[in-house]
Amino acid sequence: MAKRPLVVVESPTKVKTIAKYLDGKYVVKASMGHVRDLPKSQLGVDPKKNFKPKYVVTPTKKKVLDDLVKAAEKADTLYVATDPDREGEAIGWHLAQELPIQKKNVYRITFNEITERAVKAAFTKPGRIDLKKVDAQQARRVLDRLVGYSLSPLLWDKIQRGLSAGRVQSVAVRLIVDREREILAFNPVEYWSLHARLKAKLPPEFTATLREVAGEKAALATGEATQALVDSLDGARFVVRSVTRGERKRNPAPPFITSTLQQDAGRKLGFYEGIEVGGEGPVGFITYMRTDSVRVAAEAQQEARQWASERIGAEYVPDAPPAYKSRGSAQEAHEAIRPSDVQRDPRSVASFLTKDQLALYRLIWERFMASQLLPAVYDTVAADITAGNTVFRAQGQTMKFKGFTAVYVESREEEDAAADEDAESAVPPLEEGEVLTLLGLDPKQHFTQPLPRFTEASLIKVLEELGIGRPSTYASILGTIINDRGYVHRERRTLFPTELGMAVTDKLMPFFGDIMDVTFTAQMEDHLDKVEEGELGWVETVKEFYEPFKRDLARAKKEMGSEKAGVPIGEACPEDGGDLIERRGRFGKFIACSNYPDCKYKRNLPGSERAEDQPTDEICPTCGRPMVIKHGRFGKFIACSGYPECKTTKPVTLGIDCPECKKGQMVERRSRKGRTFFGCSAYPDCKFVLWQRPVAEPCPKCAAPFLTERVARGRRVQRCWREGCDFNREAEITVA
Fold it and tell me: What whole-number distance in Å separates Cα of residue 324 and Cα of residue 372?
């Protein structure tokens, strides 16, 4: 009986579809990701032997590897069809080392979409495993291990156990900490604006804003100065000095790459980690999700042009397909994230996807279609209006041609959106010399604002702009600093550094300036790119980093002050007379007896029982004042800032629908004994409860809407909450 070649992919959800496309001529198996890695129990890297890594079979993958070995024994050829990136290349290399197939019969195939056309085309031109990509991945893994396994024990020794630091995560935390301190140190400055409500011969009424006073740019610093100017304009004639008309084009955004999808999904949908719809689905709805390239295959562009011509009109389609430029370090072998078949519009696939999956697919589909259409065109008008020694300006625009906005409009941060709304205001037809009727002058007080706190979307955008991290790492970085380590907490999408996050940053900065430096971290990413391109060797790249790092580490071990012993507060313990000290726990500082564990007396720091209120972007529906997040006896909740006059409250939800009543959302609460649990916001009507944190990620096995997660002893275990489903997995707590 002839041996069938073995094809290995990463995800088990791809196996059935690819096997079908290959007409049963190949055996298709899944590696479920990496089958080998550095050992968790030791450094696993020998700096004295050119940083030689020690790879071991991952304990949770032993059964998977045994199954692959049995399949390989019945095959004479191996096709590595893992994901088309560094990690996929490294997974394939490790498989080639472990499986009993001659190296000359090991081939590499890649495809960016799970379609019959793409899969069959890949098998017509098999290549070899790219060892330069493998070296780049190995360099990153070794660097991350050296940093993580060196700094984390240092933090355990100097602050508390369970902490970690990493080559990328520590820079991300520093950005959030620095932004918070800029905000806290910011001194707002008062300024005023003046707006004239005017009426022309023809409607509509419109508003013009003060621009000049006595030939100088308007600068109103106080209410008194503004009122004096208002008084001086009493009886003044408002006359149109000039009218400028023009046209403005707004170009469509390029199709998504991983980071821009995370940003737009964060702003529009409220989640920052992409749901695996696409290449992971049973049909393969989208192309590969981890990419930093905006390149689009010619056949996909043609399909989009044809769909647009037939559905919305040929006038929306440009003469030639648009060309978008990726940033310098992008891997152009990849494509942008796009639908694998544009004929599958969101409405036609709605019955196959969950609510969140459909929302994400619609975002991808619409963004790609819009990227292939003509720009939107606006008629613009700007009118300068004189009154006394002042000049007011009215601006507006009206849409002339919808262009790509017929399909999709890119989301923006609030400041950009507000500017767009101002530009959209209508201005009536005006003539030079026309005298206008003043309906009123409206002075408005303002204060300068600091840069806003980061959201997941804006942090990813900054990391990308600075060249820190790569598309596949952003979600895990956020997960590590928010969920695993408690360095950052998220409130209504806004990221705040915790006291612990600030303390860790402050400890690391004096000793590890390079690791904490944004520019240095970005340069290291460039070096990894050069390793992949064959311009640098991976060993020399790691060595160049490690030698100064080793010196910094030795100095930190000697000179970094320790907080573990605690700081005496000059009081005696009321239980055994020992010295009371201020110590740091996972949830902040507290007072404890220095004779612990013999004496277990402890208490909160003064004022810590009531944590500081945190702002939200919500307005109280009862009285119109801002809503804030408060910390109560049974956990966090949202309340009116006008308490106690206004007692409006609501729970802080996790963004996960209650699976029992379908009406409420899951919220975090604390029991009377202080234990955290998760219940329905519709309590007491719905009494659904979980004792493990729900995670907004569908179960890969039964498609339940979320998993539960438990972190203990350095392990993060995720399980399906649905009774009867045995899905569980151990997710490594990264230190990247």
Answer: 10
Residues 144-167: tens digit of each pLDDT: 999 999 999 999 999 888 888 988
Cα separation of 668 and 635, whole Å?
A: 7
Rounded Cα distance, 476 and 490, in Å: 15
Among the residue ranges 398-412, 445-459, 709-723, the one predicted with the least confidence is 709-723
| Active-site annotation holds for 683 | no
Q: Which of 26, 107, 272, 288 is catalytic?
A: 288
Average pLDDT over residues 254-267: 86
Residues 6+ apart with CB under 8 A from 49: none
Q: Considering only CA atoms, which of 295, 298, 294, 277 is closest in space to residue 286?
A: 277
Query: Locate tokens 């998504």: which residue?
Result: 256
**Rounded distance, CA 129 to CA 78, Å?**
11
Residue 486 backbone zone (phi > 0: left; psi -120 to 50: alpha; other: beta) = left
* Geometric angle at alpha carbon 481, from 476 and 483, rounded to 5°: 85
Mean predicted confidence (pLDDT) in 503-507: 93
The tokens describing 653, both together, are: 């939800």
Please report which residue ranges of 51-115 form alpha helices under DSSP H.
Answer: 62-73, 86-98
Dihedral sign computed on CA atoms, order 505, 506, 511, 517: positive
The SS3 call for residue 266 is helix
Q: Is the Cβ–Cβ distance between 655 and 627 less than 8 Å?
A: no
pTM, two decimal places: 0.73
Task: Name residues whose C-beta falls within 8 Å of residue 370's C-beta, 6 or more positions apart in sequence.
Answer: 252, 253, 404, 405, 407, 408
Tell me phi and psi for residue 24, to 5 degrees: 75, 10
Number of other residues whose CB lies within 10 A of the CB of residue 575: 11
Q: Taking a C-beta distance cutoff of 8 angstroms, is the pair 477, 736 a contact?
A: yes
Tell me the pLDDT tens digit for each residue of 192-250. Answer: 999 999 999 999 999 999 999 999 999 999 999 999 999 999 999 999 999 999 999 99
Beta strand 488-491 with 376-387: parallel, antiparallel or unpaired? unpaired
Q: Which is it for strands 206-213 and 216-217: parallel, antiparallel or unpaired? A: antiparallel
